[in-house]
Amino acid sequence: MPERPELDYVVPILARELSGLAIIGLRVDSPVVLRVALREPASEVVPGATIEGVARRAHFVVFALRGAAGRALELVVAPMLAGRFSLEAPTARRTADLALTLALSDGRELRYRDDVQMGKAYVIEAGQRRNVPGLEHVGVDVLDAKSFSRAAFRALAKTRHDQVKVFLMDKSALDAMGNAYADEALFEARVHPKTFVRSLSAEEIDRLHDAIVTVLAEASAEVARRAPPLDEKVRDFLKVRNRHGKPCPRCGSTIRKAGVHGHDAFFCPTCQPDERGSAIVDFRATLRPEAAVVEPPAPAPAPKPARKRHS
Ligand SMILES: [Zn+2]
After folding, report:
1. Structural domains in the chain?
2. The model's pTM
3. How far is the CA of 206 from the centre of ligand 1 (A)?
4. Does 163 score more than 60 pLDDT?
């Protein structure tokens, strides 16, 4: 998916290019991407609306629209894995992955393409964020130094019972990382992706906090420096993500790939040793002996005698 560094690059460009333009037409090239939480179909309310601004919220791109009679609407796009935007002339070739097109008053088209059709575009009344799964509750902004302090990250980590990669990707906790930058932050912090958060030391949690900030800030700077076309993802500078079988840039070991709760994770087995084994032994040592006794199964409860009702 476009992640934080890509969205932080793309969204300000969209805001600059689109703010103040009117939408004169809507073409739904792939109906599966569009969700409308209004009484009317999108084709009745989106054409004629003005784009007042474009902002990022977690992994969403939110277009603020002003519709007929001043009605405030939002077009919320979750690009997920493969969604991408481009600004094109109407005569530009329509690719097979085209999902949604907005015809704009300056003669161009904003095209949203998605070759796996996992992304979604929602049209909602402004502020009705509960209509979009994941939009309402967004975690702490990891690039806001004031709110994302070491203390804030420690407090957040204390509440977690999951594996660290799952924690990093939880957008209701942290705004925001996907697969790629979670892997990169874990590599930077030398933490194995399957480590349970509760088994991380205070020092490891601080290291992970600093790694998240460093990795995302550096990636954002690199994407801005390279200034790719809107629809291109620059990822060739990543150190472990999608580098399965290649040498670790730090120690030369072979990068591995593992599944973590339905997500794939790339890591260096030397720089990020799997310490879960010792954690499990520690946990078992704290069990009281009686916890191991297997109780005979309880007899099935006798059927309750029917109570006489007072009439
Ligand atoms: Zn290594």
Report:
1. 4-131 (3.20.190.10), 140-285 (1.10.8.50)
2. 0.84
3. 20
4. yes
